[in-house]
Design a protein that fits this description.
CATH class of the largest domain: Alpha Beta
CATH topology of the largest domain: Nuclear Transport Factor 2, Chain: A
Strand content: 25-35%
Low-confidence stretches: 1-53, 436-447
Structural class: alpha+beta
Helix content: 10-25%
Radius of gyration: 29 Å
Shape: globular
Number of strands: 25
Largest sheet: 8 strands, antiparallel
Distance between the termini: 28 Å
Bound molecules: zinc ion
Mean pLDDT: 83
Length: 447
């Protein structure tokens, strides 16, 4: 048996190799697809031109609003310490013009904003006359056209964002992250799904065999992935319990609702750290303390997470303490109302502006995971106070949120039925056999 540290390293290496292979396979698929598309369009084009007339019809490629076949096109990448003049002088643009252009575009898109390693395009109508346009793409959302001929100015053009409705489904066989990754879904979906279901489902207790389905908006610009929009419907099966989250918007109502029309939010988040951490020690009034070697009650729930992971306020409230204690290390205590308060221990440092007396909002970063005070590894000890007594927040029955008004339900239910039916129709991909030893190693940091 290998020492644990080496074993962990090997595991990390294994994951990296799987990821690298995954992206390699994905890339080769992509290029093959592109080749096929190109071939198909060539064949298609030939067929059409034969059918229509004896003359071949050439369909111009439009890019940046220009018909590229009417220009001499240069595409290259800006190198380190390369200035605009160096790029344009070989294309017969006089230095005085470049200088004038640089001054004219100060407010639209200053040439000092051009960055190395970014692609640019130069369009020249007549190579004897010098270049007409210099085009630069600062990001996927926009591009800049510099007019090199008459106006000597710049125009920033924002590309239209397209939204496509997509579906995802998976069966968990090691972690949510691995399941998303191995099925080729965007990793941002984990956060989005957690955002929808975190009120009804404890993401720390998901297990192998659990299943999820999602209907969501995917944004793209010119066919390139540009992020996830809204999740429109979410389904999660945890053990034998099924959870649904349905997006609904009508007048003042906006958000996620369950099958009965109950809003899927609560005044309290389920945990103070996001998915990716795990419970390393539960609330236990008779715990044997690993550092002190004697029975000492544990009045909190420990979430082990990487040092520096943000710790968030689980609910709106006022900071009553942000200080240091010998056992607690750096800690923050928040009073939420006259009944409830929460406390977060062992922080490496406090969040920006966190001190006694400040108001905090639910989800706001109040500190970062560390191991200050009596702690064997980086974790946050999360303590929940009810009427001045520490209680197990996982057992606590917090009041349910108000249901949607009765008169709204006839409008909501048909939408719910449609989303639930669509979710039901999404097939599960074959689960990938990935062996991990994650569950064996659920020991770790305790305070
Ligand atoms: Zn603890």
């Amino acid at each position: 048996m290998l020492p644990k540290r080496i074993k962990n390293k090997l595991q990390t290496l294994g994951v990296l190799i799987v990821l690298l292979m995954g992206s390699f396979i994905f890339n080769s698929f992509l290029s093959k697809d592109l080749q096929q598309v190109q071939q198909a369009s060539l064949i298609g084009g030939l067929k059409t031109s034969k059918g229509l007339s004896a003359f071949p019809i050439k369909i111009p490629e439009i890019k940046f609003g220009f018909a590229l076949d009417t220009f001499h096109v240069t595409i290259d990448t800006i190198r380190n310490n390369q200035f605009l003049a160096e790029l344009l002088l070989p294309h017969k643009v006089e230095y005085q013009k470049i200088d004038q252009l640089a001054r004219n575009v100060q407010d639209t898109f200053a040439v000092t904003k051009l960055r190395a390693n970014k692609e640019y395009t130069i369009l020249t109508r007549d190579t004897a006359e010098g270049a007409d346009y210099f085009i630069y793409e600062p990001d996927v959302y926009s591009y800049v056209v510099y007019d090199l001929k008459d106006k000597l100015d710049a125009t920033v053009i924002y590309r239209p964002m397209e939204t496509t409705i997509k579906e995802a489904a998976g069966t968990i066989n090691s972690s949510l992250w691995v399941t998303m990754q191995s099925n080729g879904f965007p990793i941002d979906l984990i956060d989005k799904m957690e955002g929808v279901l975190q009120w009804s489902l404890d993401f720390y207790h998901i297990q192998n065999g659990d299943q999820f389905k999602l209907i969501y908006e995917e944004r793209s610009i010119d066919g390139k992935y540009a992020g996830i929009g809204k999740v429109l419907g979410a389904y999660f099966k945890n053990y034998d319990n099924e959870y649904y989250g349905i997006y609904y918007e009508n007048g003042k109502l906006k958000g996620y609702y369950d099958e009965e029309g109950r809003p899927m939010k609560s005044p309290f988040l389920k945990s103070p750290v996001k998915y990716g951490s795990r419970i390393s020690s539960s609330f236990n009034p008779r715990r044997f303390h690993p550092v002190l070697k004697r029975v000492r009650p544990h009045y909190g729930t420990d979430y082990a997470a990487a040092r520096g992971t943000p710790i968030v306020a689980v609910a709106n409230g006022v900071v009553t303490r942000a200080g240091y204690g010998k056992g607690n290390g750096n800690f923050v205590k928040i009073k939420h109302d006259k009944t409830y308060a929460t406390q977060y221990l062992h922080m490496s440092k406090f969040g920006k502006g966190i001190r006694s007396g400040v108001q905090v909002k639910q989800g706001q970063t109040i500190g970062y995971v560390g191991s200050t005070g009596l702690a064997t590894g980086p974790h946050v000890c999360y303590r929940f106070w009810k009427n001045g007594r520490q209680v197990n927040h996982l057992r606590l029955k917090l009041p349910n949120p108000e249901p949607m008004p009765e008169k709204e339900k006839p409008t909501y239910f048909p939408i719910r039925d449609k989303v639930v039916a669509e979710l039901g129709a999404i097939p599960f991909p074959e689960p990938l056999p990935i062996a991990t030893e994650m569950n064996e190693e659920k020991k770790g940091a305790t305070e």
